[in-house]
Amino acid sequence: MGAPGSHEFTVRDSTTVYSGAILALRLDQVVMPSGEAQREVVSKHGAVAILARDEQGRIALVRQYRHPIQRRLLELPAGLLDGGPEESPLDAAQRELAEEAGLAAGSWRTLVDLVSSAGFCDEATRVFLAEDLRAVDSGPRHHEEADLEVLWLSLEDAVAAALSGEIVNASTVAGVLAAAEVLRSGVELRAPDAPWIDRPRRFTGRQ
Questions:
Q1: Where would I find the beta strands (DSSP E) of the chain?
Q2: Which keywords does the record carry (predicted)?
Q3: Is residue 97 within 8 Å of residue 139, measured between CB atoms?
């Protein structure tokens, strides 16, 4: 066993035990500092979320039903990177903003990157800041999205909703708090095509 922080974690064997439409489950045998251990890994598409801010300082939120927790959540417009291996995160964000909120944006920047549950899942989300908004046709909506409601909140009210527990979606909480800090500090944001080291590719590649 070497010094802490020096071990090379290698995968000796990997078996996919389930593969569905939006996720796969595999069992990895990983070489640990003290021997081998099995790790269950959920593999998914990457995701994008969009904090769309208008000239009045309001942000677009959607309220939609989430079946795993069986209630509606207040969230940023968001969706999976499931448009194929050639679809960029920005392309996906533009598509999702139009489909869920009926909006397009003239200005795009990377707001924050998230790894949601690194203990068992490779899911990662890029949150964009979109400004210079205009209305577009959202097209037909299906399944849960047919019940989707678009709401506008001031950024200040969205921060309060996150801190009070009204907003609990992880990418929404992170995006709202990050946007508030950007406005407070004036920190320069990354370009919309900035490198994204943790973007998941294994699940898309298996199809």
A1: 11-19, 23-32, 35-44, 47-52, 58-66, 71-75, 78-80, 103-115, 124-135, 149-154
A2: Hydrolase
A3: no
Give the active site residues. Answer: 145
Evaluate whether 28 touches 182 at the Cβ level (below 8 Å). no
State both tokens at 95. 């598509």
What would the two tokens of residue 12 be?
A: 């000796």
Q: What pLDDT was estimated at residue 107?
A: 98
Backbone angles phi, psi at 179, to 5 degrees: -65, -40
Do residues 132 and 109 lie in contact, with contact meaning Cβ atoms separated by under 8 Å?
A: no
Q: In which band, very low, low, confident or very high, does the pLDDT at 137 lie, cut at 50, 70 and 90?
A: confident
Two structure tokens written together for 77: 């417009």
Kindly state the DSSP code that residue 191 receives in the 8-state scheme: P
Q: Give the start-to-end residue ranges of the domains of the chain.
A: 11-43, 46-201
Instruction: With a cut of 70, say whether residue 206 has pLDDT above it.
Output: no
Identify the sign of the CA torsion 165, 171, 172, 178: positive
pLDDT at 84: 78
The overall pTM is greater than 0.85: yes
Q: What is the pLDDT of residues 102-114, one digit of tens each?
A: 999 999 999 999 9
